[in-house]
Amino acid sequence: MAALAYPISALQLPQTVLPQYEPDPRVSDTADTAEYLERLHTYVYDVLTSLRRSQIHALNSEFASFAKQLDGLSSLTEGWDGYNAPRPSPQAIEEAQTILQGMQEELVKPYWVSASADGGVAFSFASPGNRRAQIEVLNSGEKFAHLYDLNGNSHTEDWTENIEGKTFRELLEPILQHVQP
After folding, report:
1. CB contact set of 133 (below 8 Å; sequence gap of 6+)
2. Which whole-number Å values give the CA distances from 151 to 112, 116, 131, 132, 148, in the listed order?
């Protein structure tokens, strides 16, 4: 059972902020009100936790499929695409697995996971419209996000983790904003 981060009785507000006390006939006493607020807080917290767990449970099977696709990339041979594309390196696949785990924790699902024609792994994202994005982890260790649309507009961002102190979620934000309708 979750509890409030602080007991209601510990609230210390300046007297000038508090309204004059007038008994409310609908409330028997402030102890009942504090107990009710604590129960309400617990209920809301439990409902939100339950919703998040159900989202995570539903996505787990999809992310398991993506993880399986990543594992399968290690069996590709040189020239897998018919144009001499290098196969993804074990390091690129391992880094892609870390990124996939981060996306799962943030509840951000890619549209597709595939090998990159430049050698490495690509996570693809698509909007209902014409906007697309890819996160690529190359065999060289380079990581970037490529944001583009079907009209020929594009932008590439360095996607090195913790670049300029950014969190993983902050790295994902431009992609999410780009592909949202």
Report:
1. 124, 125, 126, 145, 146, 147, 148, 175, 178, 179
2. 21, 22, 9, 11, 8
Q: In this predicted model, which residue has the larger pLDDT, 145 or 58?
A: 145
CA gap 140, 120 in Å, rounded:
8
The whole domain housing 142 covers 45-179
23 lies in a domain? Answer: no
Looking at the 3D structure of the chain, how many domains does it have? Answer: 1
The answer to the question of residue 34 being in a domain is no
Does some domain include residue 4?
no
User: For residue 34, with 0-12 CB atoms within 10 Å meaning exposed, 13-18 middle and 19 or more buried, which class applies?
Assistant: middle
Candidate from 60-64, 110-114, 147-151 with smallest mean pLDDT: 60-64
Closest by CA to 148, choosing from 129, 164, 167, 172, is: 129
User: What is the pLDDT, as a whole number, of residue 11?
Assistant: 46
pTM metric for this prediction:
0.67
Domain assignment of residue 75, yes or no: yes
The phi-psi region of residue 20 (left if phi > 0; otherwise alpha if psi is between -120 and 50; otherwise beta) is beta
